[in-house]
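About this split. The held-out portion is used to measure sequence recovery: a designer receives only the structure tokens and must propose an amino acid at every position. Recovery is the fraction of positions where the proposal matches the reference. Here is one held-out target exactly as it appears in the evaluation file.
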């Protein structure tokens, strides 16, 4: 059987302290119906705050240091319990520890693409990913709004709420389309700074502060990115002369890398040049005024030369056999 001394020892708490645990924001010190000994020692480590509660109401708070629990440093609890200044009896109270250390290495990301109105491309759906850190700034606010009567609260417990604040901040900050997507992707530091301010406002409501906020990636859905890539290609093709030269150079590089070596250079390069020249010739004549019939006759392309170029395009795979036959018939009819 347990002796009287063991029973009393189990019922009284002489030392109260807590060692921080990774990912744990706050705990309620396990009293298990025990009472706190008058003159007991409270140890609050660096980066911690300890709070005493009586019947759910905050009484006294302690900053880092070693504290002897008595009526002098428990003034609010003393007033609530109507103690005399020289009380000697053990007392009951709930003790909570909160860590104010920065919680780092946390990830955020948009679960669904966010629709923004881009200055250059119009409505776009973008995704963003990154990392952030936070800490408990206002312990009293955090204790009321987040901790409540829980025995333990971790970073993982807040993950969904914090992500919701971040996603709302991103949608609000980027939804106005004040910054073009190209500028967002090219200057992630400016984007990070802007979003950090929006996230900070949401965290503050819970007694938290956003210490760091980084945007590590901004991207578009694959199908949208493909359209933008095609648009970039069309802008490059705007200069047909440069395109023809690029085609010839690219054919040389491709042929040199193939097992057949340089054998295919002539046909590929000729096809590329022919395509560029044919397109350039066709486009250059659109909308151009004809000064005299003689000038028009001089500008007319020789049908045999045109058929030769079209044949090279067919060999290169740029046009089909049917398209070549139709063009050839039309050109021969002019002779």
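Reference sequence for scoring:
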């Amino acid at each position: 059987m347990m002796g009287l001394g063991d029973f009393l020892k189990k019922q009284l708490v002489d030392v109260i302290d807590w060692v921080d645990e990774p990912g744990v924001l706050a705990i309620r010190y396990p009293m298990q119906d025990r009472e706190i000994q008058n003159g007991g020692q409270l140890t609050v480590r660096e980066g911690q705050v300890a709070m005493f509660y009586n019947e759910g109401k905050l009484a006294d708070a302690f900053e880092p240091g070693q504290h002897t629990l008595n009526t002098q440093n428990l003034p609010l609890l003393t007033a609530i319990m109507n103690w005399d200044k020289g009380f000697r009896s053990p007392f009951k109270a709930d003790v909570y520890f909160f860590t104010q250390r920065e919680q780092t290495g946390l990830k955020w990301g948009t679960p669904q693409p966010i629709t923004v109105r881009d200055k250059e491309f119009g409505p776009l759906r973008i995704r963003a990913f990154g990392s952030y850190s936070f800490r408990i700034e206002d312990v009293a606010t955090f204790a009321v709004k987040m901790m409540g009567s829980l025995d333990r609260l971790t970073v993982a417990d807040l993950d969904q709420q914090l992500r919701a604040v971040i996603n709302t901040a991103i949608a609000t900050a980027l939804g106005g389309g004040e910054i073009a997507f190209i500028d967002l992707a090219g200057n992630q530091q400016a984007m990070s700074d802007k979003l950090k301010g929006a996230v900070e406002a949401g965290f503050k409501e819970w007694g938290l502060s956003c210490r760091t906020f980084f945007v590590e990636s901004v991207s578009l859905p694959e199908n949208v990115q493909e359209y933008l890539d095609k648009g970039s290609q069309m802008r490059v093709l705007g200069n047909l002369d440069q395109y023809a030269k690029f085609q010839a150079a690219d054919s040389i590089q491709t042929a040199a890398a193939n097992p057949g070596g340089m054998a295919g250079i002539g046909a590929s390069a000729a096809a590329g040049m022919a395509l560029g020249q044919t397109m350039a010739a066709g486009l250059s004549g659109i909308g151009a005024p004809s000064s005299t019939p003689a000038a028009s006759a001089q500008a007319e392309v020789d049908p045999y030369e045109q058929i030769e170029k079209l044949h090279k395009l067919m060999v290169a795979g740029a046009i089909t056999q049917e398209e070549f036959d139709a063009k050839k018939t039309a050109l021969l009819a002019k002779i």
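Annotator remark: The first helix runs from residue 4 to 11.
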